[in-house]
Design a protein that fits this description.
mainly alpha; 2 strands; 507 residues; 1% strand; 65% helix; globular
């Protein structure tokens, strides 16, 4: 093993140790806010049913889209076509930011109102839905979406304020201006960067991405970026242990996630860091660049760090696999829901293989829960497999021959379906058919799993808990590696033919 890889492993352990430490603190705060009895007894304390909660999610998101669209249409889209408005709005409300446009062409007012507003709405929605699912399991009530949403916005605002201060201390300009001139002079870079990374949107103020000079004044900024990207997804994992009063359970889940982190990082590092380092800003060294890009993909943030065409075929295959897993740890809220899906699937198969009754936190897993968990987790795979032939049939502007061209298409479809947002095409993807199809993929990939997640936990409210000595222990290494196995198995089975046509055929 080379010295460079050893140094990278040390960097890897240090960065994620700090991220996990901060995540634990935030998990304690989240438990106090969302699971405290006083919180559930205050105004807006009426308990919603599963259908009422889902309806409220749609109402708030549709209302937010209307507000953002009006601002966007008046200030920018009046002279644009190709259904670009549909791509932009769906990108931001689904926490994706699949950019088929140039950020600098938008006015300050548009970016700091319409798009900035949606970057709070999207993660707050995902956080509210995931917390309501967990609350229904342990408190046998969903709570009230409007109260969850408001408190999530306040939590995100407070964290954004803290992260903005840290960015400014590290040299990232705040520079807020009410000027309507295009460009980045006096732009609110640190304020904008804080929520795009914290909320796992990934849409930086400028198209070049978070590694561009103004957004990456030094490597310490990259270090902070990695922590901010991971802090909320990791905090939700710690929240499981805090609510169940079993931190070992959170540790077992983190072992599974960090196993993927470590293996994939070694795959993408070997013999490539020198090449990548020549293609990225000088202030972003080889260790932080790979860690930052990995965190960007694994949290489904999709923030641009360096050109995707700098990746080798094996790296492209690894990142596509990582994107579609959607739960390692995934974006705030959405990744947590996918993690619950795969936990249920793993419990079901592991328990049956060992002759045990499948149980989740003491609840028997029956047909209804298994059905919704399986449908929720494989839905993204179904979207990808359906969308690829549709796009090939619809579009003639791109060359979809096997190899690199098909890889770019595969990346685009997977990225849109799992709300990642990174892509090869950029502004070249601004054509009507691609904007419409990817927009629909983003909407379906966002809200259908919400539906399956809420409906899966609905039956737990009327169930009784029961524990026996023969129950599968979720706080064990056996379960950790079972989780690793089933995530890898499900993703590879679905993706292998597509990877063979794409990156693996490139040599």
């Amino acid at each position: 093993m080379s010295i460079a890889i050893v140094q990278y492993i040390v960097w890897f352990i240090f960065v994620y140790f700090v991220a996990i430490l901060f995540s634990f603190v935030i998990a304690i705060i989240m438990h106090k806010i969302f699971f405290d009895k006083n919180y559930l007894q205050k105004p807006f304390n009426w308990d919603m049913s599963a259908n009422e909660y889902l309806t409220s999610v749609i109402i708030v998101n549709v209302f937010s889209v209307i507000i953002a669209f009006v601002i966007l249409w008046i200030t920018y889209l009046i002279s644009h076509d190709q259904f670009l408005w549909f791509n932009i709005i769906t990108s931001y409300i689904t926490n994706t930011n699949l950019q088929h446009f140039i950020n600098q062409q938008l006015t300050y007012f548009t970016q700091t109102t319409s798009l900035y507003y949606l970057q709070f709405v999207a993660p707050a929605t995902g956080l509210s839905v995931s917390l309501s699912m967990f609350r229904s399991i342990f408190l046998k009530k969903y709570g009230n979406f409007y109260r969850d949403f408001i408190m999530s916005i306040l939590l995100l605002s407070a964290l954004t304020f803290v992260v903005t201060i840290l960015f400014n201390l590290l040299g990232l300009s705040f520079g807020y201006s009410f000027s309507f001139m295009a460009g980045i002079k006096n732009a609110p870079l640190s304020l904008y960067n804080a929520i795009t990374l914290l909320g796992n949107n990934g849409g930086s103020y400028i198209t070049e991405g978070i590694a561009a000079g103004p957004l990456m004044p030094n490597s310490l900024t990259a270090f902070l970026d990695i922590i901010v990207l991971n802090v909320l997804p990791f905090s939700l994992i710690f929240l499981i242990g805090i609510v169940t009063k079993n931190i070992k359970l959170s540790v077992s889940l983190l072992i599974a996630i960090l196993t993927f982190f470590f293996v994939f990082n070694l795959i993408i590092l070997d013999k490539t860091y020198v090449i990548l380092n020549s293609l990225i800003p000088a202030d972003l060294n080889e260790y932080s660049s790979l860690s930052l890009f990995y965190s960007s993909i694994s949290t489904n943030t999709g923030a641009a760090v360096f050109p995707l065409n700098a990746l080798s075929p094996v790296q492209l295959a690894a990142f596509i696999t990582l994107m579609l897993s959607d739960s390692l740890p995934g974006s705030v809220g959405s990744g947590f829901i996918s993690l619950i899906f795969i936990i249920v699937i793993t419990i079901f198969f592991s328990a049956l293989m060992s002759g045990r009754m499948p149980k989740l936190f003491g609840y028997k897993l029956e047909y209804r829960e298994i059905k919704y968990a399986v449908l929720g987790y494989i839905f993204h795979f179904a979207l990808v497999l359906t969308a690829i032939p549709l796009i090939i049939f619809t579009l003639h502007q791109f060359n979809f021959s096997p190899g690199y061209d098909f890889t770019k298409l595969l990346w685009e479809v997977v990225s849109a379906s799992v709300n990642n947002g990174s892509d090869f095409y950029g502004v070249n993807g601004n054509i009507s058919a691609l904007n419409i199809i990817t927009g629909m993929l983003m909407l379906l990939g966002r809200y259908v799993p919400f539906y399956f997640g809420i409906k899966m936990t609905e039956s737990f409210i009327n169930k009784d808990k029961s524990f026996t000595k023969s129950d599968l222990k979720l706080d064990s290494l056996y379960f950790s590696f079972s989780l690793v196995f089933f995530i890898f198995l499900l993703v590879i089975i679905s993706l292998l033919p597509l990877l063979a046509l794409g990156p693996l055929s490139m040599g």
